[in-house]
Amino acid sequence: MLSPVILLPAILNGLMTGAIYALVALGLTLIYGVLHIINFAHGALLTAAMFAAFFAYTLLGLDPYLAVFVLAPLFFVAGYALQRFVIGPAAHGEDRNFLLVTLGLAVLIENALLYFFRADTRTIDLPYAFNVIELGPAFIAVPRIVAFVTVIVVALALWAIMQWTDTGKAIRAVAREKLGAELCGINVTHIFAITFGLGTACVAVAACLLIPTYYVNPTAGEAFVLIAFTVVVLGGMGSVAGALIGGLCVGVIESLSSVFFGESLGQIGIFASFIVTLLVRPSGLFGARA
Amino acid sequence: MAETLLKVDNISKRFGGLLAVNEASFSVAVGRITALIGPNGAGKTTLFSIIAGFLLPDGGRVVYDGTDITGEAPHRLARRGIARTFQIVQPFAGLTVRENIAIGAHLSRRGRSEALSAAGEVARSVGLGAQLEAPAAALTVAGRKRLELARALAIMPRLLLLDEVLAGLNPSEIRDMIPVIRGIADAGVTVLMTEHVMQAVMRLAEQVLVLAEGRIIAQGTPQQVAADQRVIEAYLGHGAARRMAVGAGHD
Amino acid sequence: MKTYLSIIVVVALLAAVPMVTTSNVVLNFLVTALLIALAGQGWNLLGGYGGQYSFGHAAFFGTAAYATAILQVRYGLNAWVGSFIGMAAGALVGAVIGALTFRSGLRGSYFSLVTLAFAEVLRIIASVAPITGAGVGTLIPLDLHARAFQFQSRTPFYFIALALVAVSLTVIRAIENSRFGAYLVAVRENEDAASALGVDAFSVKLCAITISAAITAAAGCFYAQYFLFIDAGIAYGPWISIDALLAPIVGGAGTVFGPLLGALAIKTLGETTKLIAADAPGLDLMFYGLLLVGIVGLAPRGIAGLSRAISRPRRSSISTPDGSRG
Description:
In chain A, about 75% of the residues lie in helices and about 5% in strands. In chain A, strands 1-2 form a two-stranded antiparallel sheet. Chain A has helices at about 5-35, 40-60, 65-90, 95-115, 140-165, 165-175, 180-185, 190-210, 220-235, 240-260, 265-280, and strands at about 130-135, 140. By secondary structure, chain B is α/β, with parallel strands linked by helices. Chain B has helices at about 45-50, 75-80, 95-105, 110-125, 140-155, 170-185, 200-205, 220-225, 230-250; strands at about 5-15, 20-30, 35, 60-65, 65-70, 80-85, 160-165, 190-195, 205-210, 215-220. In chain B, helix 3 runs parallel beside helix 5.
């Protein structure tokens, strides 16, 4: 009963959604790879970015695809400041405190959004949001293709930054050996904040890619954060390639299991694979270490 | 040869491409102080971690008191009477000295107050009596080394594994520590120690094992080992050999 | 002994409240605060003493609440019996999650993450499974008799909640002064060092998560009987995971009275914001988030740590896991 006519579009759509997951996961894994800490505020920051993209369009008339160029730098600065002036000092260098502080920020941001914007679900209407392109038996919405391509570009750009800039090299040095990097004169506090900023900027890009076809409400990011965790765990904490491949995989798993089991059980499919991966292979499918 | 308490039989351990321990075999006689020496990276700490159950060997057996204990979990080994200290000290930083030692004392004492008072006695035996109520985090390096020792002693071990317990101490602190270790052995505890401080090895050990590139290349009394050409060539160098001879002369 | 005495004094003082006022507002406030104190005491054992930060205590709370409610509604079981089974069910979920996660050696961030995921999985299942009433939730029919664990006034509920809290305080105090408690703290401080001293870290953590789950589960059973309605968002929602963690952190994690102090503090904060800003959704939780960041940043040992720092500068035997490291 499952013909390629159903499966192929499901897989292609899964890949396109998966690209967004990959981008959110990329930010998460970057922060984990360098700070060795899971940022529980990632989802809340995504929601905040989605609201920012929403209001950039409704109040300023800024197209989400153009808003990227404003919001990504803005969220980079916000992420930098958050790590440098709030999370870092409040955590006192203790991993457990870091968990609590990012959890506290998540609760704070989500509920501030709820307080100011209420629980209403908002969407924007873009003229091109429902344009489709025919790919074999599948029709793919244009925003999904834009998202897919953008994610590839962002990933390549990040990779280039890591490979060839001094800051990128410093980030890799800190990720590898914090104390050694510090002894070489690298300002670790600064690098931590830069990394957090980059991770947050990823989320801002993801928000701009999501808003044309998705909705925003104060818990919109929540749906993505656990999926991003899953992606990061599947891909191996700290692994950039793992985040990309893991994101695409999870997109496909979700899309396929929705076909088989329906929407909410599709989510269970993701969590189940998440928990199983964590328990069986905590270092992830592609990661080298736990 | 005295009765054997610990027998390491053809132990090997590989990390990726590196053969850290290569078919090492030796025995530790009951009631003696045995020293395991060797240059940095010789595999001493790896071998120690295998004996103490923190690492699984790729091959070989560890036999303790006639029983094969290879791959047994650390807490089970502790219950069999094998205690260890860590080269990088691992205090329970948030607890006081007394509470730290009491964790070890609890192995044979269920009651909290018995464990706490036993901890006090052990602390006094290693010279930590005055700092009993101080937080472990406030101790000096020498104090933390003593705390490592005290916690291990509190489980009342038959075999004590000391991993570089003198490293990081200054000469006068080392001088203070040597009689403490001597006293432990005199009380009937078998001691296996890795050590870089040759002077201490010469003064304490009755048997010395030399590990180089994962293999036991020589063993014997300190004097025998110091005179062994293989040891001198593989590891010590002439200057060190002379210093050892001088150290032995003073004993 | 001093702590046992203070437990008696605190419980006696709280027990005197209904003699002073029978205001439903006051009692309702105190009942919910005690509920959070109880759920938080469960978290405190595992997180405060054991250093394993669960972000998913809703899994235990919700399972117990659902078990209690479903056993009554669908199987006609007596509410009291159902509550005990509910508590056991919560403890069982704790044991299963603990066995799985600790066996695979998950620590730190990974443990927080996987507990969060378990709670979410249960929430999603509960929101679709027919037995839980799916999206509609489960309503326990009104039957105002003591044998049905339902009462006309709030006073009996208040005393039951207080009794549960009193038991939890005593249990935690007894654990604090036992070998198990000392081992648990040792595992929190340094797992490798503890195992070298004969501590079976896996068993200690498994035991801790089971007791911890049972305590939080008791709060879940009580919730079901007090409010007579649960759905997936209430039972397994993030709110209870956060409250259970926030109360001990605010009050002082790893201290006997931390969860109670913290629960009173956060409920006071919550009610105050509601009074000032009417019923603005999100405002109270917004302050909770701010409070969590602020407490961790400025007073990592919570209210108990602050008061202790003032009265007695020396570090106490069981301290919160703060920044000091060897």
